[in-house]
Amino acid sequence: MSKAAAVREPFIRITKRDKMPIWKKIIIYVVAIILALAVSALFIFFVTKLNPIDVYKTMWQGAFGGITDTVKKLHRSVTIRDICTLLLLGVALAPAFKMKFWNCGAEGQMLMGGVATAFMMINLADAGLPNWLLLVIMCVSAVIFGAVWGLIPAIFKAVWNTNETLFTLMMNYVAIQITSFCVAKWENPYGSNSVGIINQATQVGWFPTWFGQKYVLNIIIAIIATVAMFIYLKKTKQGYEIAVVGESKNTAKYAGISVKKVIIRTMIISGAVCGLAGFVGVAGVDHTISTSTAGGRGFTAIIVAWLAKFNTFFMVAITLLIIFLNRGASEIASKFALNEYASNIITGIILFFILGCEFFITYKMNFRKSAKEA
Amino acid sequence: METNYAVEMKNVTKTFGSTVANNNVSLTIKKGEILSLLGENGSGKTTIMNMLAGIYFPDSGQIYINGKEESIRSPKDAYDLGIGMIHQHFKLVDIFSATENVILGQEGKERLNKKAVAARIREICDKYGFDVDPDKKVYNMSVSEKQTLEIVKVIYRGADILILDEPTAVLTPQETEKLFTVIRNMRAAGKAIVIITHKLHEVLSISDRVTILRKGEYVGTVDTKDANEMILTEMMVGKKVELNIDRKEPENTVKRLEVKNLSCYNKEGRLALDNISFTANAGEILGIAGISGCGEKELLESIAGLQKTARGSVIFNDPESGQEIELIGKNPKAIKNLGIALSFVPEDRLGMGLVGSMGMIENMMLRDYNKEGVIFLNKSKPKQVAEAIKEELGVVTPSINTPVSRLSGGNVQKVLVGREISSAPAVLMTAYAVRGLDINTSYSIYNLLNKQKENGVAVLYVGEDLDVLLALCDRILVLCGGKMSGIVDARTTTKEEVGLMMTSIRKGDTKDE
Amino acid sequence: MDSVISLIQAAVVFGTVIMFGCIGEIMSEKAGNLNLGVPGIMYIGAIASLASVFMYESHVAEPNKAVCVIIALVSCFAASALAGLIYSFLTITLRANQNVTGLTLTIFGSGIANFFGGSLNKMAGGVGQISVANTSEAFRARIPGLSSLGAFGKIFFSYGFMVYVAIILAILVNYFLKRTRKGLNLRAVGENPATADAAGVNVTKYKYFATVIGAGISGLGGVYYVMDYIKGTWANDGTIEKLGWLAVALVIFATWKSVNAIWGAYLFGILYWAYFYIPNLTRASQELFKMIPYVVTIIVLLFVSLRKKKENQAPAHLGLSYFREER
Q1: pTM for this one?
Q2: A165 touches chain C (CB under 8 A)
Q3: Is it true that the peptide bond before A189 is cis, omega within 30 degrees of 0?
Q4: B21 CA to chain C: closest CA distance, Å?
Q5: What per-residue string of b and e applies to B215-228 under the rule 16 or more CB within 10 Å gives b?
Q6: Directed axis angle between helix A106-123 and helix A297-307, to 10°?
């Protein structure tokens, strides 16, 4: 290094910001997303030689539009359906993350909920119960299964401080194998290695069609869960306890809060809502069960919950963005004969940019003043 | 260019967000001298030295090392310039051995030769009279062993400019004297040494010159031989300090808290409290003195129901019912449910007493959010309390919703003490209630405590400043290494007596009751 | 006896895939970076090697096997390291959350791999049609003579060279972390970056180095998977992702020591394939058997947290980003 350089201050120095006005934050996010779309466009162009604008137009069509009204309706209802499921999972993770419990097990908790739902659907198909009662039974069992799957790592975290990130991750795969086991047990027709559409003829245990729409109940459940979780976290004593435990366990003990109890209770809730998502996924969407019932959404939900800073209403916006990308990508896959994994690539790029842009919200960069060099 | 100055800092400024930690500070350190950097907590002593050690980078100003302008961007740059700093919070890797910690970050042959390094460590130990086992893991070391290791580390690196940040805070007087001997030896070897401290007698006994900082600004430098405690205090605090705390004679004292044969173990499984017995009376302030780590933390936490105890009992005499209630075996919630108003200002304000990310209102709820309502929080009463505290104690905050972690140390403490007093306690325990606060805030805290005493509260005051303990308290319980050295009358005792009791047990000489 | 040997062989092949992933992740975690992007990185490594070798094999009349192997390894390492660089830039320089960035990298990696994997299959004439026989053969070549030494030869020498590379790598990484100056500095960064920083270790540089090199090593699991495990083909079936998570699990199982990853990986392999060698299992109960590696990992995790031995714990600063001027 030359002598002159040795006395210079570093080119860029990073310091923490005090606070940033909300409009500036929004601008940063928007710029990040635009940059991400530009990078994705370059990628699309270089790989496929397609006009990226056309591709984005098609994506928009795939998510919200369509050539005919029927197609449009279909696209929109599928988009809304997918938003509901992902949103439920994001909402489920909010209390755990707020408590700084890294629940990476939404995938498994949802699957367990789905398994319980499918079990009831199959076994109570001929019981002659009214459909609403069957739905309630399915829902309750799904919630219990999900809660138990969340409870197990919580107990070990509470009592022995076992690393929950790794524990919940492993629990996902245990759940996947249990699902495979059940699929093999319940396969229909025999030898197909899939459960097939459950109760296809009778539609027993399916979500009802209301106002000519198949997904009304999905929407209702998602909205209730989102609003309820928001109130739970912000307005209730238990929500307050979660916030205190998340900030400092010592403070919680000092305040007379039983940390163990809060960890266990919160993870029961988190797992239960994941189980609920499994119920919605099986009874309200797929009408079958397989290892891909959760389809990686348990992991995507972690990103949703994190980016929304555990605020359930911000989750709606982020879920919308991600589902738009997914739906859009599967549309371009079919239209341009591309592979639908393109959506994972674009989602990845956009998330990278959003994650990166948060740096500019938390930190300030101080460039070297050129006057000093003299 | 040959120069007498090892370090010259010129017009150095450093800000953190909107707080100015150092404003236009200039100071010099000569070769072969011991410079004391004196100032109250929060005066920017550590920050300015951290810039020398490459931890922070100044916003503006120049640093000259041995007469040459240098830019110290990282600790590595600092080491290359022969600057070594021993931080107050030890910079050691817990799971490493002493040897591994010494090698860390050093250049040399890629393959580690731990044996050679261990031999060199022993050599240094022999030369200065240190006692370090090179193979011992840091997590098995005591505080003073860790500090010794830190010093060995810096010497090993051959630093010519040594900075020690409050090195005596955790040491016994004997260990301090030993340290000072070493420091004098290093001065004789021509090294430049800076000691950051706020203990005046140490400044006077060890240093050649004293540089004083106040509120981030440079106040002046004096030769130690021309200085005395009075002059230094004046420079440090800016104006003559009214050392008199308005202490009333205790009235209507009745037994409030009776601690009998209390023992407990700390996290590492060592005996932290050994058979402690005393009585705290309503209407008096009981001081608790001791070197940090003497069991004061465990004592308060045992009473508050936060620490598991091995033996003994804590009896609370209920002023209303006259009942005697055993507190041991109850957690904070259970104690509260019995209707016992036990307030506790813990040492770790933002890590235990308050929730940093929450505003004043939500922090007011911390102790009794559970009292009212079934499911939902009631924010109206905490809001009133927050507003009252802001008004009465003069808390400086943009709004009562601003996260308390953004407030200055003094205001954080006002929020905490204000909350604990607002619940009309029967017992008020405070741990280092004025640590890091400026003189004015400290005095307002003393006044608050005195007012509580006059209201018939039993106040327990854990403090580190003996002058304050002697001026504020009625009786002082002295702890030493988890054992009780005795209880003395604060009005008749002397600093020397308490100081001696803090470092050695006087058997069969407890003056209780 | 034969079935025991073939179980061991299957376990070794299986274990080698996750051993690479695990060694790389140990490097990264030792520097304090919990990289949950390992599955994505293995995906990227796999597809990069497959694609570049496919290009080479289809453009050259008589592909040279040594060149094939070099192309596969270099392209795999470079692409995986690049993925690690993305992760590093986001988590180290921009201080993004490690868990979320890692998961995003896994989504991104599976997207890239399956997108191009699908396209390659299409270019080669349909699903499952892509094949890089030459390279795969080179990867699977045995040491002549040794593999015919009866049971002994079958157990120890009936594998492609990557199996031995993995073992050597595990030992080298262990040596590096334990016995060298840089290794010591790197561990300090993961334990206590402020201390390392104060001691003059360039925390950022070490974190980048460990994560990028670690990602490169993890990616080798991907190349071994396509070239040896599935013999130079491609299928969009998500197996790599599953193996990637097992690699993350293996890090815990090995208590962050790469030599333990050697036997741990083979044990995982035995547990994973055990169902195949237990007679009279229904397909359903086979699925339950496949659960064992994960359950065993959970048990190890519990055991480690119960024993609280300092040396067996995760690096103290794992998952956290470091900002020097934090106050």
Answers
A1: 0.83
A2: yes
A3: yes
A4: 11
A5: bbebbebbebeebe
A6: 130
Domains detected in chain C:
2-145+155-312 (1.10.3470)
Closest by Cα among C121, C50, C40 to C86: C40
**Per CB distance under 8 Å, which residues of C are interface residues toward B?**
179-182, 184-185, 187-188, 191-192, 194-202, 310-311, 316, 324-325, 327
Q: Distance (Å, rounded) from C-alpha B210 to C-alpha B202?
A: 11
Contact (Cβ atoms closer than 8 angstroms) between residue A61 and residue A205? no
User: Cβ contacts (< 8 Å) between B112 and chain C: which residues?
Assistant: 179-181, 184
Q: Who wins on pLDDT, C151 or C42?
A: C42
Which chain A positions have a beta carbon within 8 Å of B370's beta carbon? 237, 256
HEC string of C39-79 equals HHHHHHHHHHHHHHHHHHHHHCCCCCHHHHHHHHHHHHHHH
User: Which pair of tokens denotes residue A44?
Assistant: 């699309």
Place of tokens 């995003």: C104
- The CATH 3.40.50.300 domain(s) of chain B lie at 5-237, 246-341+426-436+456-513
Say whether B228 sits in a helix, a strand or coil: coil
Distance CA A181, CA B437 (A): 64
Compute the Cα dihedral for A150, A151, A152, A154 and give only its sign: positive
DSSP-derived secondary structure for B250-286: P-S-EEEEEEEEEEEE-TTS-EEEEEEEEEEEETEEE
B402/chain A closest Cα distance in angstroms: 11
Token code pair at residue A1 = 């290094």
Q: What is the pLDDT of residues B43-58, one digit of tens each?
A: 788 889 999 988 888 9
Residue B84: name the closest of B194, B181, B3, B171 by CA.
B194
Is A15 an interface residue toward B (CB < 8 Å)? yes
- Does the domain at B5-237 match CATH 3.40.50.300? Answer given as yes
| Touching subunits for chain A (3+ Cβ pairs under 8 A) | B, C
Assigned fold of B246-341+426-436+456-513: Rossmann fold (3.40.50)
Report the distance separating Cα B48 and Cα B63, nearest Å. Answer: 11
Chain A CB within 8 Å of residue C295 CB: yes
Measured between CA atoms, how close is B350 to chain C, in angstroms?
A: 13
* Longest CA span, chain A: 89
With CA atoms as reference, the chain C residue closest to A303 would be: C100
Q: How would you write the pLDDT of chain A (374 residues) with one tens digit per residue? A: 333 333 445 566 777 776 777 788 888 888 988 898 888 888 877 877 777 788 778 878 777 776 777 777 777 888 888 899 999 999 999 999 999 898 989 999 999 999 999 999 888 888 778 888 999 999 999 999 999 999 999 999 999 888 888 899 889 989 999 999 998 888 877 777 788 888 877 877 888 778 877 888 888 999 999 999 999 998 899 999 999 999 888 899 998 888 999 999 999 999 999 999 999 999 988 888 888 888 888 888 998 898 888 788 888 988 988 888 888 877 777 777 677 787 788 888 888 998 888 888 888 777 765 433 33
The alpha-carbon gap from B125 to the nearest alpha carbon of chain C, in Å, equals 20
Give me the amino acid identity at A367: F
Query: How far apart are the C-alpha atoms of C261 and C18, rounded to whole Å?
Result: 9
Rounded distance between C-alpha atoms, residue A260 and residue A160, angstroms: 10
Is B355 within 8 Å of A16 when comparing Cβ atoms?
Answer: no
Distance CA B4, CA B66 (A): 8
Chain C partners of B106 at a C-beta cutoff of 8 Å?
181, 199-200
Please give the structure tokens belonging to residue B355.
Answer: 């929730």
